[in-house]
Amino acid sequence: MTGPLEIGAGAFAGLAALYFGARWLVGAASDVARRLGVSPLLVGLTVVAVGTSLPELFVAVSAAIGGHAGVSLGNVVGANALNIGLILGVAALVQPIRVELRVLKWDLPVMFGASALLGLVAADGHVGRAEGLLLLCAMAAYLAANVALGRRERAAAALSGAIDGAGAASVFADLARAGAGIGALSLGAHLLVEAAVAAAAAFSIAEGAIGMTLVAAATTLPELVTTLVAAWRRQGDLAFGNILGSNIANALAVVGVAAAAAPLAADLGVRAIVALLALTLLAAPVMWRGFVVTRAEGALLVCGYAAFLWFGLGL
């Protein structure tokens, strides 16, 4: 993939795969939540979030094994900033997103803690296998807590009769559709990453900067498309859960797996981590005010992402 026609064709194919993948995944996740009596927020925080983080995982592990640790870490930092600032902001511009109290009391602090833990282990410019395992243990604990919460929600739904009476075959069909959506999202992101790398090959740019911008933009397209589709369909819980869950999965699972596969040695600089934490803090009062992210606040988050780029990259 070297010429402009090949790059354009790869980008178009990637966008098409992302669009259909997002539709399949959002629809299947909503149906599974309805059938099992589990809240769409919990599905977004787990199944959808992990599914849309697969492109970041693929890129991070491939880059780590190939000796390009700057791309791995830069991709995660840039992707998380994109999720909070640009994707959540644009989704709110499309449709104001209502925030549940559970998110503010539990998931938002966990997301900030995951970002802070990532900054702590990466502060010395090296993330070893032991630190990668620490991140993976933190992710496992978060998922275990969500599984326990899901069981309580399902038990409550069973008592109230809120669980759909569909058989197991219907649930398996929904899960198969979700799997197809995740596969399409991963393929689309891979094609777009190839196109972005090919287009940027002629420029001399630091790996960390490439990871935080071009690669992060490509690998977060699944989150962008999935969140926009969910917001447009007025499934705010699913959209919001996808953003927070993806950020937690990126900071803990993606970096954890990449570091376990091959120790990461890359100095992104303190500015990038500080900028990410500041952007995460900016989102907190936006969500608390009225438990809804309005269009004006969405625009504020987009401006916050622009500030992240200016400060984090030292522009």
Overview of this protein structure:
The protein is mainly alpha-helical. A two-stranded antiparallel ribbon has the order 1-4. Strands 2-3 form a two-stranded antiparallel sheet. Helix 5 runs antiparallel to helix 6 (129-160) and helix 7 runs antiparallel to helix 8 (207-219). The protein has one domain: NCX, central ion-binding region (A middle domain of Talin 1, Up-down Bundle), CATH 1.20.1420. The chain has helices spanning 4-36, 40-52, 54-65, 69-94, 101-122, 129-160, 168-200, 207-219, 221-232, 236-261, 270-288, 295-312; strands at 97-98, 126-127, 264-265, 292-293.
Query: SSE order, as H and E?
Result: HHHHEHEHHHHHEHEH
Overall domain count: 1
Q: How many distinct beta strands?
A: 4
Radius of gyration: 19 Å
Q: Could you list the spans in which at least 5 consecutive residues all have pLDDT below 50?
A: none
| Highest-level CATH class | Mainly Alpha
CATH architect. name: Up-down Bundle
Looking at this protein, list some descriptive labels.
315 residues, A middle domain of Talin 1, two-stranded antiparallel ribbon, 82% helix, globular
